[in-house]
Design brief:
Order of helices and strands: HEEEEEHHEEEEEEEH
Number of strands: 12
Radius of gyration: 18 Å
Strand content: 35-45%
Structural class: alpha+beta
Oligomer: single chain
Bound molecules: ligand 9MC
Distance between the termini: 30 Å
Length: 235
Amino acid sequence: NRKHRLAYDVERVVQEHLTYVREEISDGWDLIHQEGEMKVYRREVEENGIVVDPLKIFHSIKGVTGHEICHYFWDYRYRMEWETTLDSTKIIEVLEPDTVIFFQMHKRVWPAAQRDSCFWSHIRCISNSEEDQPTWLVVNYTTPHHLAPIKSPHVRLVANVALICETIINEPPLNIQDIKRENIECKLTYVAFVNPGGWVPSAALRSVAKREYPRFLKRFTSYVLEQTRDKPILF
Ligand SMILES: O=S(=O)(CCO)c1ccc(-c2ccc(C3CCCC3)c([C@H]3C[C@H]3c3ccccn3)c2)cc1
């Protein structure tokens, strides 16, 4: 039986991401940026002359767990502290404790019209028995909503974004409570399928994306490190 009206959609999109995240980077993906542990890949795709390049970022961050990374990514309370490309974000509906709908105004990228977005956002822990640590993930997926009317001149973004995290415990001590932050590492995969929802100059959009995605992920992961530094580890 259904938990809420979007439960089937959420399940379908989560399973899709879990299927594709394991897919190796095949040909057709270009490595467009590499910085430390972060590797940024992009496929060049246009739909009706609109750039809809899929983005896939692999990164590993020492000192935090996948649960902590997903918690700070999903919880809207922290969003404006790390998201520098938003003018505003607000929850417009809570479907269940781990599934909300939020409305966002994105900063205008000249000369394109300003974008807004309306996503359902779902956080989930997937504990597979054999591996010691569970996988945590967040999915942000465009959905229409009566409290997020599309108003000109704003253009509604269409996006399907996932952050999928594994937690590695290096040199695990005998008992779990002795684990320190230097023993833990989060390996994350970030995928973004963003359709700007209307025409944007291809070259401009590609250069903004190439600059902004790495910057955004670097700033976000630094923010989580600083927020969790002296807190107990959240497995
Ligand atoms: O990870 S999230 O779910 C976090 C919740 O906020 C996410 C991240 C990024 C976007 C987004 C939104 C708009 C644009 C473009 C389209 C036309 C004009 C702006 C872009 C492209 C340009 C790339 C970009 C990447 C990162 C940050 C900003 N800009 C990306 C949406 C959701």
